[in-house]
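Second attempt. The first submission of Na+/H+ antiporter NhaC had a stray character pasted in from the spreadsheet, which I only caught after the job came back as garbage. Lesson logged: always re-copy from the clean sequence file. Corrected sequence (472 aa) follows.
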Amino acid sequence: MSESFLEKGKDISLGYAAMVVFLVFGFVLGGAILFGGNIETMFILALIFTVPLVMKLGYTYKEVQDFGWKVVMQSLEANFIILIVGTMVAALIASGTVPLIIVIGLKLISPKAFLLTALLVTSFTSLATGTSWGTIGTAGLAMIGIGNALGVPPAMTAGAVISGAAFGDKMSPLSDTTNLAAAVTGTPLMTHVKHMTLTTIPAYIMTAILFTFLGFKFDATGYDPTIVNNTVTALSGIFNFSFIELLPLAVVIFLLIKKAPPIMALLSGTASGLILAFFRQGETIHSLLGYIYDGYSIQSGITYIDKLLNRGGIMSMISSFLIVFSAAAITGMLSESGILNALVRPLANNCEGSRFKTVLYTLIMGYSTNMIASSMLLSEIVPGTIMKPIFKKNNLAPQNLSRLLEDSGTLGAWLIPWNANAIFGATMLGVSVGSFIPFVFLAWLSPLTSLIYGATGLTMIPLDKYEEKNAA
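This time the job returned cleanly.
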């Protein structure tokens, strides 16, 4: 973090930088939207002209290649987590963990309270573990199953699940994004978390109210207990249930709380799930290895049960893996060469002397980086590095910046259809990105609260008072 983002690469004209970024991401989005190409395919094809355009600035092919590999390596752990989550989902279904949660939920949750309950359950899970992806792949997957059985529109359920998962990812001291935002801005971790409550809690309360309202409104149109009873009966006939089936999920949560490496925690969940599936559900080793690769598979004769259970596995996550991998390579070429720097520098310089512009432009940079880089982590690093000296010059304490990085980075990632987070959510929950985005209320409301604070000055801590307090 010592090297300023504005010092990276060569001095490049704004026009050339804009042209390169427009061509690269216009090609990706155009191919995906107009011709139905897979986003990962379009990113890989975009390398054909990204490399020459960067080399035109005077870099060698080896230098351009190194630019891409640098960011690819930085995202490698997160990319492996994508694949491991796929294995864990398959294992948790085969073990009976996810089906048991669904059965418990169906017995306890009414349609009126379901959306609010889905929000609260995923919030607690994510807050305890610090991972939105792990939450979506476990508790979120169960909530989708319960919602489908209750007849709740999947897009609404996905919105509640993602809002809850994103809340915990943003507020948990265990979260990588929480720690990153604090580190980039030089803010003490708990100071950062405490300052975020001033925007996140009001936004969360409004989110809870909206889901409560939607739950009451939806309940008037049709809850069919027959579907619920049939689902409980079918799942109970397929799996052996006792509270021991919750052990794999407990293992993952415990290890993450103890700050074990996420990869090891998720692999431990996978391993414990496989052990339970072998001893409790009667699965063979051959079948379990197949589930890990291709996902859990069953032909129950009930279409919606098969649709609910047949998921997970390494291959189900390959698309997300390739998107993150290829997007990271292109982002590295653009950022390390100075192209991204030239594009955003004027935006950074223009907000000097204005508190509201400082807040607004930080949010814009976060969303823009999320759109360009398809990376939640880069969307905190890039604007955080650029805006840090401007916050200092405008007498704004660093926790103001770290809070904004989470609003546009951690939360904004779920609102970008091609972002790795949104794609993961859609893949895992079986709901299209476009359908759930309007219902991720927390991601819309939290930055709106920050804009209001930026305009009024509420909760915006001055730098001199912050330094004076710390000095004392």
